[in-house]
């Protein structure tokens, strides 16, 4: 019954489980779109996704369960959908847009940032599933490749650090003025090298997800810079 209930809750865009006990389950449902705080949602998505990165890195060196990461991935999707729904409403309702204290152009940029953050959460989730289920599928050889696993862990941690810097920059009053990615000019080459040295099926797949991650993080940076330089 618990799983069925959880699946039902996931179908609500604006619902969040607040408390679960043996006797009751408390859910907070946002009926009034005007009460939504976009900045708080972005902060929450960034916090959850960082946690997903950290737990996925841990999976590569332990027998931790990846199911918690999956649940956090669902939460990122819910929050992203909620925020985009609020932005769409605001773009068609000037009073709500005024409450958000953003121009229409800024709301458009924020919608892209939220979309990219949601995609980043999905890619981390896919990586976690591959690693977490590796004992049961075609990626089982991942567990036996000690040096490759260590290299993958380093690449994933580096991706997590890059994402963390972008999230931190977003929280600052003045957004980035240059690409943080300039610190990672050799990053994609490192991923390609990892894939070449480990031609087995799991390495190209994991490498591709890493590339998708850094591409979306880089796109987020571009939008942040565009938003900072947009007419006020």
Word description of this protein:
By secondary structure, the chain is mostly helical. The chain has 2 domains: 1-31, no CATH class; 32-229, Methane Monooxygenase Hydroxylase, Chain G, domain 1 (Up-down Bundle). 68% of the residues lie in helices and 5% in strands. The protein contains 8 helices and 2 strands, in the order H-E-E-H-H-H-H-H-H-H. It has helices at residues 2-10, 38-59, 67-91, 94-100, 104-132, 146-171, 187-197, 202-229; strands at residues 15-20, 25-29. A two-stranded antiparallel ribbon has the order 1-2. Helix 2 (38-59) packs antiparallel against helix 6, helix 3 (67-91) crosses helix 4 (94-100) and helix 6 runs parallel beside helix 8 (202-229). Residues 9-13 have low confidence and may be disordered.
Going across the biggest sheet, name each strand in turn. 1-2
Overall strand count = 2
Radius of gyration: 19 Å
CATH first level of the largest domain: Mainly Alpha
Q: Report the CATH topology name of the largest domain.
A: Methane Monooxygenase Hydroxylase, Chain G, domain 1
Please count the helical segments. Answer: 8
What is the averaged pLDDT score?
A: 80
Range of strand content: under 5%
How many separate structural domains?
Answer: 2
Chain oligomer state: single chain
Classify the helix fraction into a percent range.
55-70%
Most strands sheet: 2 strands, antiparallel
Helix/strand-derived class?
Answer: mainly alpha
CATH architecture of the largest domain: Up-down Bundle
Order of helices and strands: HEEHHHHHHH
Termini separation: 51 Å
The poorly predicted ranges are 9-13
From the spread of the alpha carbons, the general shape counts as globular
């Amino acid at each position: 019954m618990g799983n069925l209930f959880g699946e039902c809750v996931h179908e609500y865009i604006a619902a969040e489980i607040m408390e679960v006990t043996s006797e009751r389950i408390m859910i907070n449902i946002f009926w009034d779109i005007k009460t939504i705080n976009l900045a708080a949602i972005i902060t929450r998505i960034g916090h959850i996704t960082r946690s997903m990165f950290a737990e996925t890195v841990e999976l590569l060196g332990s027998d931790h369960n990846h199911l918690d990461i999956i649940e956090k991935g669902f939460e990122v999707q819910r929050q992203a959908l909620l925020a985009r729904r609020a932005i769409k409403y605001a773009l068609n309702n000037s009073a709500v847009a005024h409450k958000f204290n953003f121009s229409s152009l800024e709301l458009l940029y924020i919608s892209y940032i939220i979309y990219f953050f949601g995609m980043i959460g999905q890619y981390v989730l896919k990586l976690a599933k591959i690693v977490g289920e590796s004992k049961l599928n075609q990626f089982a050889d991942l567990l036996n490749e000690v040096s490759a696993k260590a290299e993958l862990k380093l690449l994933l941690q580096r991706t997590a650090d890059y994402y963390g810097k972008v999230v931190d920059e977003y929280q600052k009053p003045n957004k980035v003025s240059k690409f943080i990615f300039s610190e990672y000019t050799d990053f994609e080459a490192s991923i390609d090298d990892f894939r070449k040295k480990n031609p087995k099926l799991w390495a190209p797949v994991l490498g591709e997800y890493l590339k998708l991650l850094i591409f979306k993080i880089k796109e987020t940076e571009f939008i942040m810079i565009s938003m900072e330089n947009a007419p006020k």
